[in-house]
């Protein structure tokens, strides 16, 4: 048995899912529940709520501060690490502001994914891989006795969720992190307008900080009794809704990763200049659309053809 602390610095929901094989493999290898120290903005307590591989999740703030506040944050994080009293610490990224408290901590065995040969240097051998692939590579390098490559989230709270559902449910996500991966909203409006002639339920999601989407959506969509807007829902409610749905459509983003992890029919649109479809490591049955290789019209037709096969 080995008591292990895993520090997850990543900000995204998808990043939490990419960590699942590492966390499960550690738990099964050492037969000891993990302590997770996680960036407070990634919603790890909600995403991992029904997982069994951890004992505790402690949230911390992983933000670039002024010099003096950074020093205070380093000291606080070092103290948190020491209080965990673990045998092994794994930091799954290599920002220097997190490497420092790890180096200063009392933990004997320290592993930093992406660390170079010397203090505060970085190993660039995987620099051209996606974040998901990097985590997989570094996990393999641990040579754990038990290896579990499973990206599917536990669904204990959703096992009876579909029993009363009588019509198809569709979740559509309009935005992405920093809006770097956004497909034109006119395309989503086109898809939604075509779908509204059928007997179904559509959930339209976007960040609560982007209320400008309300001005772009036609009134006949916003006022339809088949439409529910979810921008004001909590992440726990969003997770419940995604699990209720049969189909999820959107930009390569956190909701797409959640849907893939819940084995939904997922249609992910991505702009390769900004991002690659990392969520494909979760579920190889996801449909991907490269906006540089396919026109908007072709993508819309492909999505509609796939959906109509099951809803008509």
UniProtKB/TrEMBL annotation:
Single GO cellular component term: cytosol
Keyword check for Transferase: yes
Any single Pfam family the record assigns to this protein: Glyco_transf_9
Entries under InterPro entries matching the protein: Glyco_trans_9, LPS_LOS_Heptosyltrfase
Keyword Glycosyltransferase: yes
UniProt KW keywords: Glycosyltransferase, Transferase
Molecular function GO labels: ADP-heptose-lipopolysaccharide heptosyltransferase activity
GO biological process, one term: lipopolysaccharide core region biosynthetic process
Protein name, per record: Uncharacterized protein
């Amino acid at each position: 048995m080995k008591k292990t602390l895993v520090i997850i610095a990543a900000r995204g929901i998808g990043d939490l899912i990419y960590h699942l094989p590492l966390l499960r493999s550690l738990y099964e290898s050492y037969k000891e529940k993990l302590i997770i120290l996680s960036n407070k903005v990634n919603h790890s307590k909600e995403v991992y709520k029904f997982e069994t591989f951890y004992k505790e999740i402690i949230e911390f703030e992983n933000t670039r501060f002024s010099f003096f506040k950074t020093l205070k944050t380093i000291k606080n994080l070092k103290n948190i690490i020491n209080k965990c009293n673990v045998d092994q610490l794994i930091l799954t990224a290599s920002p220097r502001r997190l490497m420092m408290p790890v180096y200063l901590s009392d933990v004997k065995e320290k592993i930093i994914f992406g660390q170079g040969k010397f203090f505060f240097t970085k190993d660039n051998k995987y620099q051209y891989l996606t974040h998901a692939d990097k985590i997989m590579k570094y996990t393999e390098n641990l040579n754990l006795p038990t290896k579990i490559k499973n990206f599917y989230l536990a669904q204990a709270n959703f096992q009876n969720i579909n029993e009363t559902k009588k019509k198809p449910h569709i979740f559509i996500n309009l935005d992405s992190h920093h809006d770097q991966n956004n497909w034109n909203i006119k395309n989503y409006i086109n898809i939604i307008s075509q779908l509204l002639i059928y007997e179904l339920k559509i959930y339209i999601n976007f960040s609560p900080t982007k209320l400008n989407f309300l001005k772009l959506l036609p009134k006949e969509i916003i006022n339809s009794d088949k439409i529910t807007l979810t921008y004001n829902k909590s992440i726990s409610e969003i997770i419940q809704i995604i699990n209720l749905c049969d189909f999820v459509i959107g930009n390569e983003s956190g909701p797409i990763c959640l849907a893939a992890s819940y084995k939904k029919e997922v249609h992910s649109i991505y702009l390769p200049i900004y991002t690659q479809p990392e969520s494909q490591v979760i579920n190889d049955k996801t449909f991907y659309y490269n906006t540089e290789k396919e026109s908007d019209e072709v993508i819309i037709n492909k999505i509609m053809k796939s959906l109509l096969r099951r809803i008509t």
